[in-house]
Structure formats: structure tokens, C-alpha cells
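Record 1 of the preview.
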Amino acid sequence: EVLELLRREQERAGLSMIFIAHDLALVRQISHRVLVMHRGRVCEVANNPAIFEAPGHPYTRRLIAAAPVLDDAPD
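->
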């Protein structure tokens, strides 16, 4: 509900937000642009689809590979 409220307010008021998270699924859902940091330094900045579909930095690739993926297939 909170994310939906943020999204509505963003659209209504034309807001820009800085959203800091370690949850990549959440970042993918809410962010237009993504900045990845490693050891306090920026290692990659890109639009949301580019980061998740073709990450350029090895650390970004490792982060995405480590994120759990839900299996919706029935047993």
C-alpha cells in the first residue's frame, strides 16, 4: 500500500524520489533509474530495464544473480 501511495503521488505531483533499498525486486518495481554502489562507490547507473536486462558491471551482475526468484510453477 505504501508503494502504491508513493507511485500515485509521484505521478500526481511530478515528484522525483530517492529510494534506497537492498531489495532488488522492490527496486525493479518502483525505480525508473537505478544507481548501484559497491563499497561506498558508484559502480553503475542506468535506466531500470537496462540494469536488470543487461547489467554492465560485474558487481551488478552478482547482485542480480543472488536475488531470489519466485517459482510460480505448480508442483
